[in-house]
Design brief:
Elements (H helix, E strand, L loop, with lengths): L1 H53 L3 H7 L3 E6 L7 E8 L2 E9 L3 H19 L7 H15 L14 E9 L4 E6 L4 E5 L2 E4 L4 E2 L5 E6 L5 E5 L7 E2 L4 E2 L1 H12 L4 H15 L9 E7 L1
Antiparallel strand pairs: 1-13, 2-3, 3-4, 4-5, 5-9, 6-7, 6-10, 8-9, 10-13, 11-12
Length: 282
């Protein structure tokens, strides 16, 4: 009996020793993983600082149109959605864009897109938003070598709305890659339908706004967000109803409601995509 008890104690001691060693290994591995995760997160946060620095200063937009706002909420730390604008004499070029993906891959694509837009719109021969979109898509295909038959093909790109706004008379030329746009014209929220299309699938619109009218553009992360009482998407119809209710409010309040509506809708649900929403009152 004593021998059996001694053997049992020896076995228990060996088992405890093995368990302690495994526990130490797990703790060390956990600490290593936590450190790597922290290093990765710190790097991504630094990348966000770079991305934020490359986005245009919204104060430059409000200097042109004092009643304007940009609601920008990445799904992850960095974003595939981006906005860009630049004034050339009396024309403001404004882009609301959704690059393929989100997170780090999307951020790389957004950097490519914004850099190309800055370069393309500065060319004297580029005379319209549709021409800008066409060149942008071609340049992205070249950069990503999507014409190279020896490489695995990807379909990365940028879905975009580009507006050319005459800041003096509010005549707006728009080109989009199948993106819906809302306008508040004469106090009525309207979905700005396409006037012309082309084989590439672009949609163009030429619209004469007047002082007091409003233009709203956005990426699909807003209408595609799940939530609400039934866990469904926001959808365009609800966005339009919201804008119809708030269009007469001051723009600072509109910006707050656009933000609050989205985040209350998604409460209890994961954000499905990056979100960008731009409003401009002429």
């Amino acid at each position: 009996v004593k021998i059996r008890e001694r053997n049992h104690r020896v076995f228990q001691a060996q088992l405890q020793k093995a368990l302690n060693e495994k526990t130490r290994e797990v703790i060390i591995q956990k600490e290593e993983i936590e450190k790597k995760n922290k290093d990765i997160t710190d790097s991504i946060r630094y990348a966000k600082r770079i991305q934020d620095a490359l986005l245009p200063d919204i104060r430059k937009l409000t200097n042109i149109f004092p009643e304007s706002f940009i609601f920008f909420q990445p799904r992850d730390i960095v974003s595939g959605d981006f906005y860009w604008f630049q004034q050339y004499e009396n024309k403001l070029i404004l882009a609301c864009a959704d690059a393929t993906g989100h997170g780090v891959p999307g951020a790389f694509m957004s950097l490519i897109g914004s850099t190309l837009l800055k370069e393309i719109t500065a060319r004297a021969e580029v005379k319209s938003p549709a021409h800008t979109v066409e060149i942008l898509e071609d340049e992205i295909r070249i950069l990503l070598r999507q014409h190279d038959d020896e490489l695995e093909h990807t379909y990365d790109g940028v879905d975009v709305v580009i507006c050319e706004i005459d800041v003096e008379n509010y005549f707006v030329r728009i080109c989009s890659t199948k993106r819906s746009i809302f306008g508040s014209i004469n106090g009525q929220i309207q979905t700005l339908k396409k006037e012309t299309g082309d084989p590439q699938g672009y949609e163009t619109r030429d619209i004469q706004f007047k002082k007091g009218d409003t233009l709203y553009m956005f990426t699909d992360g807003y209408p595609d967000q799940f939530g609400g009482d039934k866990g469904k998407k926001i959808k365009m119809v609800n966005m339009k109803a919201m804008l119809d209710q708030i269009q007469s409010l001051p723009f600072d309040k509109q910006a707050m409601i656009v933000d609050r509506y989205f985040n209350r809708w998604k409460e209890g649900h994961d954000q499905v995509d990056d979100v960008l929403f731009i409003g401009i009152k002429f």
